[in-house]
């Protein structure tokens, strides 16, 4: 068994390397965007994920800027004591960190919400009236993951991460959901992180990571050559290798027990099918910045 896992590690390292090559340009763009966002420079969305904004007249532009200013002015971090106490019991954050996260949540929602509203207004023929957002919607949260945590993974995974945070399943990540989810990403135990990544990879929530799901997760990691007759053949071969090494009970799918056993034996397998956690360095920097939020 040890020799099998030793053979699997170079394969997954190779997959991670190919994924890193593919996402290097996206990561650079995300980091530049984060720097511009902090300095106050307006950032345009990438053409792949965001439609190009049409030219708007000066009146609508002034209205958008006015609405953004009003939105920011409504950010008042009034935090009930029982709210902090409840989150302190549910998460691994200190009370001081929770207070900082509450303040940061309101600021980030205001920033990403204003940016999202401005983009929508630019594509519309009718000026929109900005309504304060209660939390992160899918587009805002995807921007947050990219800019703050450097998670520039495929859309299928960012949507799964959103669903993990959105415990109420109402399409919005609220303040308490955001803090509870971050507790796992930033301070989770090994068991919590294993459960989290398994949940992300279990695309249809049936309690198993199937062969088809692994294929969907890995197909964007490999570089495809135009001359290949079947570009997905290499992905299918890799899926078969992964199943042979991680499927302990040989039922052609990964149960939580299969996945957990594999990760405990080899920690590199935690994110074997795609990035869904921030790096240790980014996590530490984010935690250090919480206490400085005004």
Automatic annotation (TrEMBL):
Name of the protein in question: EF-hand domain-containing protein
Domain EF-hand: 153-188, 189-224
Record keyword Zinc present: no
InterPro entries per record: EF-hand-dom_pair, EF_Hand_1_Ca_BS, EF_hand_dom, Recoverin
GO molecular function per UniProt: calcium ion binding
Keywords: Calcium, Metal-binding, Repeat
Biased composition regions of type Polar residues, renumbered to the chain: 37-47
Region (Disordered): 36-60
Protein origin, superkingdom: Eukaryota
Pfam families the record matches: EF-hand_7 (PF13499)
Gene3D superfamilies according to UniProt: EF-hand (1.10.238.10)
């Amino acid at each position: 068994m040890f020799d099998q896992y030793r053979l699997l590690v170079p394969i997954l390292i190779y997959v991670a390397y190919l994924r890193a090559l593919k996402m290097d340009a996206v990561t650079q763009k995300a980091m530049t965007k984060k720097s511009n966002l902090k300095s106050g420079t307006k950032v345009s969305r990438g053409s792949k994920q965001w439609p190009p904004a049409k030219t708007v007249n000066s009146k609508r532009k002034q209205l958008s800027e006015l609405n953004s200013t009003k939105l920011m002015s409504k950010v008042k971090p009034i935090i009930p004591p029982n709210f902090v106490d409840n989150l302190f019991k549910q998460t691994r954050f200190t009370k001081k960190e929770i207070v900082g996260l509450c303040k940061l949540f309101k600021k980030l929602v205001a920033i990403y919400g204003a940016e999202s509203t401005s983009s929508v207004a630019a594509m519309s023929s009718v000026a929109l009236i900005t309504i304060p957002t209660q939390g992160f919607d899918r587009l805002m949260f995807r921007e947050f993951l990219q800019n703050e945590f450097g998670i520039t993974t495929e859309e299928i995974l960012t949507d799964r991460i959103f669903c993990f945070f959105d415990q109420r399943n109402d399409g919005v990540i609220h303040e308490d959901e955001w803090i509870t989810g971050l507790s796992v990403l930033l301070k989770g135990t090994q068991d919590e992180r294993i459960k989290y990544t398994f949940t992300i990879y279990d695309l249809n929530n049936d309690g198993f990571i199937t062969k088809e799901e692994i294929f969907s997760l890995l197909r964007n990691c490999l570089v495809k050559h135009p001359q290949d007759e079947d570009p997905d053949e290499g992905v299918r071969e890799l899926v078969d290798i992964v199943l042979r090494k991680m499927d302990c009970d040989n039922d052609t799918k990964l149960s939580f027990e299969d996945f957990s056993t594999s990760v405990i034996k080899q920690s590199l397998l935690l994110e074997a099918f795609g990035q869904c956690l921030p790096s240790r360095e980014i996590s530490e920097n984010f935690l250090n910045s919480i206490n400085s939020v005004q």
